[in-house]
Design a protein that fits this description.
The structure is a homodimer of 251-residue chains. Chain A folds into 2 domains: 14-144, Jelly Rolls; 149-238, Arc Repressor Mutant, subunit A. The first copy, chain A, contains 8 helices and 11 strands. Chain A has helices at 30-39, 95-99, 123-129, 131-157, 160-178, 192-199, 203-215, 231-238, and strands at 40-46, 51-53, 61-67, 70-75, 81-87, 92-93, 106-109, 113-119, 187-188, 219-221, 226-228. In chain A, helix 3 crosses helix 4, helix 5 (160-178) packs across helix 7 (203-215) and helix 6 packs across helix 7 (203-215). The two termini of chain A are 27 Å apart. The interface between A and B is large, with 48 and 48 residues. Chain A binds a DNA duplex (30 and 30 nucleotides) through residues 159-160, 191-193, 201-205, 207-209, 211, 221, 224. Chains A, B: This is Crp/Fnr family transcriptional regulator.
Amino acid sequence: MTTEPRSNVTRVSCFDCPLRSLAGFRAFSESELNFVSQFKRGELLADSSSTILVEGAKSAHLYTVLSGWGFRYKILEDGRRQILNYVVPGDMVGLQGALMAEMQHSVEALTPMTLCVFERSKLYSLFERHAGLGFDLTWLAAREEAILDEHLLSIGRRSAVERAAYLLGFLYDRGIKSGMLSETNRHIPVTQMHFADTLGLSIVHTNKTLRKLADRGLILWRERGCEILDPEGLQTLSSWAPEELRQRPFI
Amino acid sequence: MTTEPRSNVTRVSCFDCPLRSLAGFRAFSESELNFVSQFKRGELLADSSSTILVEGAKSAHLYTVLSGWGFRYKILEDGRRQILNYVVPGDMVGLQGALMAEMQHSVEALTPMTLCVFERSKLYSLFERHAGLGFDLTWLAAREEAILDEHLLSIGRRSAVERAAYLLGFLYDRGIKSGMLSETNRHIPVTQMHFADTLGLSIVHTNKTLRKLADRGLILWRERGCEILDPEGLQTLSSWAPEELRQRPFI
DNA sequence: CGGAATCTTGAGGGAGCTCAACAGTAGTGG
DNA sequence: CCACTACTGTTGAGCTCCCTCAAGATTCCG
């Protein structure tokens, strides 16, 4: 079931975009800001566990996440699901659908989400008018690619425990950098079912694997989600570390 | 060991680029062609199984594959390797390294390869001067993303036989569309070790899995590579089909 | 209050792993 | 030119990690 936009009017002006103040996001020039501002059509408020984009659809819009957690996934004919990646504030959603003929994956909200809505048809003018923004889009796509590379390495070559530790460390990092997590809020809003479908494991074995991590004091499972207790411990266990903080673009 | 360019001079003029005549590649405008032509620094001839780009390096160049097969991979500290994707003519190589600080994966040649060499520092001017080409780059990155999504689904959720069938069908499709394969030449130049590291399986089990496919008459393993006998059979077995042929860009 | 998710745990089975050995081929150096 | 070594492909045996099945406890939600 797709959630329809509750509003067509811009609520948050791009000039007051809360993401601008986050460390790690690059600054816009005034003309870029003006362009993005009129590129933005409105906002989409998505309920928790609602579908934002669905595989096979030809969407007229693309989105940027303003707030909330979500995830991208694909399913096989018989229902087997693979979660591909998670989305947090600052991430683009639906760029593939805007460039290719149709969406090759679906997107669902983990929490209530707010998304900025952009017109697909105006995408090309973004490249024409503001080369810098076009460059940023390519950057974003390349970064998503790098993340998927890492996930592929993880699923293909890491053991269950290493995989889970990697995923938790990865989500913690993304949460912190996007402002969804902080020193005091370290709660990732996923079910073990989500984790199983991300790790390529059965739900039973995912449960037993997460228990091992909990027994080591690295995490705590509570309130339909996961509390990160020891990010460094997770990184050590998975032999993975996030890349250093750098100025990243967003639209 | 990195292969050094044997020549700095452009051998094949962009105007005579053999890829231009391939079905499925979009046509350039004359001014685009002029730009790409002077964007191109020269050609790199890589020997079979030589390393073209290495993880962690800060490359001053990016490349387009003109001829030959190659692959991208990552390795864990203890040597476990995961092949992420294969590269064929028309594919960009090293775009990540050009956009991010350094390469997050390595690239190796499966056969002798020819690559067009571009200057990393001039990449931004491509976006400034030719919005269409910038758009194409984003398209290429988004397509790579879609492929990685599919691989992730495969490794995470398909059985060994399905996975192998998917990979073979996928490579056959890419080979045909890039001109590396044809009705008469259906030979993919990989070892079973490459397949194992792509599928996330051990080499022994990969061998036994490929045997099952060979026993079904779908493939034939010979001369250090794989002969595709029945592409449709592979597609059916993996419940995967390539997307329809469409005008795709290249640089 | 009842049904549907979600989390948990135990038991048994199987897909895929490691170890091991061998054959065929390619590459290399004396 | 041949011997030697490295790589590749193949097959068997036993083991283990992870799967499925099953059942129960807890929480959420209508």
